[in-house]
Design a protein that fits this description.
Layout lengths: L1 H51 L6 H7 L6 H15 L6 H11 L1 H4 L5 H15 L2 E5 L5 E5 L5
Antiparallel strand pairs: 1-2
Helix pairs in contact: 1-2, 3-4, 3-6, 4-6
Length: 150
């Protein structure tokens, strides 16, 4: 009788995990959508500021909107995402760095320690739920995309 109770509890936990995972995925999709909307509004404000000059747009709004310009970190983040999205197997940070160097040399050119920079980005993407990690047969941490964005 105890075994049946344990199985039903496990089944309920599995169901709860699946529901929570679906909710998390939905929230991450909503976050991505809102971020895209914010980017479009910022670009519009920047364009208006450039067209109308200083008189046409409130200065504080224009200053906030000018943060739209991509940074090297964003380029490196985008390159890491692309590498992992196209990878057929999980990759170590060193392998991701090598692939990024081939894909987008300018994104990684100015990094003092490229592997450390890529590792920091992979950890941030892990926090966002965009990537996950595991250990390979040699005990090295490997990274993979949680969903393909092709």
């Amino acid at each position: 009788m105890e075994l049946i109770g344990d199985l039903s509890k496990r089944s309920e936990m599995d169901y709860g995990d699946r529901v929570a995972l679906r909710e998390l995925e939905g929230l991450l999709r909503q976050l991505a959508h809102v971020n895209r909307q914010i980017l479009m509004v910022r670009r519009a404000i920047t364009g208006l500021a450039a067209t109308l000059g200083d008189d046409g747009v409130d200065g504080s709004v224009a200053v906030q909107a000018t943060r739209v310009r991509r940074t090297r970190r964003e380029d490196l983040t985008r390159a890491c995402r692309t590498v992992l999205d196209h990878a057929s197997l999980p990759l170590t940070a060193r392998e991701v760095t090598h692939a990024v160097r081939e894909l987008s040399p300018s994104a990684i050119a100015d990094q003092a320690n490229p592997v450390a920079s890529v590792t920091a980005i992979l950890r941030r993407l892990l926090e966002f739920g965009e990537v996950n990690n595991a250990f390979n047969e040699e005990g090295r941490r490997t990274w993979f995309a949680t969903r393909k964005r092709l």
